[in-house]
Amino acid sequence: MDPESWSPLHIFVGSTTYPPEDVLLPRMMFISADRHQSVVPESDVQVRVATKLHLPYRRKDGVGKDTAILRTALSFQALRKHQENLPRYVLPRFCFFVKRGVVASHFSLIHYDVVDPLRLLSGPDVHRKTVSLQTSKLTSVEKYQRFALVRNMRVSHMESELTVEVKDRTVYPVTMCGSLRSLRMTFRGTHGVAMDEPESQQQYFFGPYGRNGSIFKYGWRPFHTAPFNLTNVYVVYVLSSDDRPKISVRDMELVQFPEWSKPSYWIWRFHYERFSWIATASTYSAGAKFLSNYALLFLYLIAIFHSPYMLGEGGTSPGRGALYRVFYAKPVVATMFVGITMEMLSSYIASQALEVCLQEERPQFSDEDLSAMMGVTEKLVLMFLYGLPPRYDACKYSWIRMATILPFDVAADQVVHVVFGYCCVVMLLLIGYGIYFLSWPLSRVLRPFLTWRLGGKVSVWPYILLWLFPIILHNTVLWMHVSLSTTIACLTAFAVIWSIPRGVLTDTNPRYHYICIISIFTIQLSTHLEGIAFVLRNYVMLPREVLDDFERFESLPEHIVAFTVGQMCLAVIYGTTYLTLLHHEGVVAHGDTKRQAKLEKNNRVGDVGDSVENGKGDGKKVGVEGNTVTNGVPCSLLRGDTTYVIGDMGRQYPALRVFAQVGSWGLAIVTGWVCLVALRRPLEGTVALFGMCMVSAYLALVLLRFW
């Protein structure tokens, strides 16, 4: 926090229940506090509007009266010109015009407060004590009329219980919370103030509406970019018709004044320490986004090079080229080699092609002139390696030079960094396999439900219901965040794929469950990139009243897209599990039929049995009844109406197989390009989020080829 933000902050705020578009020509005037109540002329005091705030007011749990909800707040800046002409005491007045047609029974308020964090206006002794308290790193709470100061608050503190009690309920109170610097930026006026969010650390709490009572409880956790900032001061400021609202930050007050003799304090202390650890872990878990680009790259390469092995397509198959045999016979070597090559080669191309973008800013040229100076190669690199438009204003930021262009003297260090990223991805996959094995008890519970038979064969309805369960849960439970819904869906899918038979299903002996595990875990990683740790922290820490604020759990559009893609991939996984069960059921039934026919023939002729010579070449052989057999499965089964064999759907609908093959290869190419963009833009999690979804979709199309 810079020294300027420690000076006293004089706050003049005018608020009204009129919406912002109805407030015309707002201004603040001063009136002398004597019996004459004369207006202070503008020649003595210069007043201007500093910031026009658009207060949030919409809630999903209720709608309040328009005349009881503050819709507009304006801060004013007042400068004295001639102090000798001013009266000793003045009263501020908030004035504005409204159109004749909108005049109604509305309310307007004027607030004046002085936020003095170091008590500079209270004398030298008080100032020294305040500075000593601030530098002691001890948490303390100071309450004033309409605001409270919390010193030395840590971001690792739990979701603090914030309570505001007002006696005058003419209007609903609006509580503004944040650091002192954010409050200063909010009220002093700046062109960077955004609607509804003046600064990243400023939070609003309002409502709920339609409830009798004057006590409002919220869960407040201050924002800050650093995990710990012990010299910061946080402010709780209340806009209300009550001049002295009661503000209570109970958790911080118990930290300041412990109640050692009360058992309830020790219970609170236990939860407080536990929640603090969770909050700290969720704060540091945000650093996982810096690993997201390598996680995406190596998960993509693992899906490309390991999926043939998982499907039983060996790299030493006859008729394959030498490069194919090397890459697919040694998938680990191929993954490492291609990953390092993509990272180093893309970095080298970017450093050689980006000339205008990497130069220092030249103010004598406009952005249009610099865009015209860029060559064709540089524009192509921006489009294909960075996913940016070919303009200078898209690449003039320092993050390209600092985060994506590597000096040649650290090339070896970067190779080690890439290898470390691969090791982290392997550890993540091991964690995924661990979650898969931990889901075994749930699979035993679901096993009777999954093998429920209807009409003589395994029913598909249990799989449809399990797939629909998280979707219905997400759409019906309004406080159910999309990351939690996806996590429930992935855990259920882990338990379902335990039903895939482990026996030899075809001659190629595919390991469908391996592909399913990687696909499910990739979907789960997309939810972590969204911030699953923060979401779980909210559910653990928040008071139950906050669950009514459904807007707190809303997700961004890109996260809804990721959820949709993930559910489509899970539908393919559920379908694969169901079809492998049908296939296995048909193979077992066919084997029982053959054994029964053989026993009947032996009993009839008295022989031990006929020997069957296996056919070679075209993969066909002659059975006991002379029927042709393809891939170990009789063609009579392929033509049957009640028995399914792996590949029947593709044989019956060739367009489906063509779509799966062409789509998987096309998606593999596009996903490779997204991986390149993610490598060059490591600080943006959205690119990696979409890349994870595309990897899951590629694996789903690979499974779809064998339906």
What labels describe this entry?
4-stranded antiparallel sheet, globular, 21 helices, alpha+beta
Distance between the termini: 61 Å
Instruction: Give average pLDDT, whole number.
Output: 77
In the sheet with the most strands, the strands line up as: 7-8-13-10-11
The outline comes out as globular
Low-confidence stretches: 191-200, 315-319, 607-641
Summarize the structure.
With 707 residues, this protein is α+β, with helices and mostly antiparallel strands. The protein has 21 helices and 19 strands.
Question: What would you note in describing this structure?
Answer:
- The chain is an alpha+beta fold and 707 residues long.
- Among the domains are: 3-257, no CATH class; 429-586 and 655-704, no CATH class.
- Helix content is 46%, strand content 15%.
- A hairpin with a 5-residue loop joins strand 17 (620-622) and strand 18 (628-630).
- The protein is globular.
- Residues 191-200, 315-319 and 607-641 have low confidence and may be disordered.
